[in-house]
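Final report, Chapter 2: Outcomes

The project's central promise was a pipeline that accepts a single protein chain and returns its three-dimensional structure in a standardized token representation, suitable for archiving and comparison. That pipeline is now operational. To close this chapter, we reproduce one record exactly as it appears in the project archive, with the input sequence first and the structure output second.
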Amino acid sequence: MASTWEHPRLITAGLMSLPVALLVVDQLVSRSIRLGPLMVGAPALAAVFCTPLGVVAVIAIAIPCVVLAAAGNLALGTANFWVQLTALVLICMGAVGASWIRERREDELARTRAVAEVTQRVLLKPLPPRIGDLALASVYLAANEDAAVGGDLYAVADVGGRVRILIGDAHGKGLAAVETASYVLSAFRRSVRQRGPLHAMVTDLEEDFREDLRDATAAQQDPMSTSLALEEFVTAMVLEVPEKGEGPTFMINFGHPSPLLIDRGQVTVLDPTSYAPPLGLGDLDHAHPPVETVDFPPGATLLLYTDGVVEARNRAGDFYPLADRLPGWAGLEPEELLSAIHSDLRRYVGRGLSDDVTMVALHRTRPS
């Protein structure tokens, strides 16, 4: 059921009735108590909740009620009445102007959100609910809820019997992080089309990402800005999972939080034996990124996430204990699991998120 506050016409009608109600009460009580000045509050409140036309409607009721209240109290024509009426007119003019400005800003914000939502859909394409034996789900929460998009990223690609999953977190904040994330996603989509082995794909991913950064900053006139742009990096995780059967699952960790394996009510942290440098910093280590083999048995669920989940703090300053919470949700399907974590995280933090939150869950169904 929609809230009353979501119906501007009901709010306008209520504020139009306020001066009338005050006028009736004013005529019933002693003349020593004058409620006429309180009628000024109706146009002021209308500026907050009503459209400009609604404010005018409230004013059309408020001014006659003020005049009638003054007449009933034998104050019509006194100096105090003219001061009160002048103040009311000034407040009414300000109320109409404030309502018009508010409505314009709300329209601008709505357009900005619509653009952000389209941008998010372009960058973070919805995951298919199922690929082979894998059930997939994702959730993305930008720290800036008005922007709806941030520096976290994820993508999935089917490369002929094997599924490659990318999750990452761009360094920095704001539009710069969104731009960096877009370069990584573009490079991932190009590199997976080559259908080469995983180590070759991530090498192409690194090279394409750095090339895109160089191309984007080549036209910048400020050498300092160009230098800083070329130092952008993204912590990431790349997984290659067999689409069907129990083949090996491969993982490369580019300085990203380790995935969690949920199997038979137990939670295992899949820490790599060694990390690759974050994407964009591959020139710091010329060795091939280490490819790890991890266990992902039928009936198990893999949870990938960004540091915005485990670094979220409650009011006491304690980090969100993701791994400790997961056993209680071990039997849930991926979408239900992410919904449970999301709700629990919101309750735990108790306020707005300070960083972007992204999670991807994969469940390998048991053979029938």
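Archive annotation: The two ends are 42 Å apart (CA to CA).
This record, like all others produced under the grant, will remain available to the consortium after the project formally closes.
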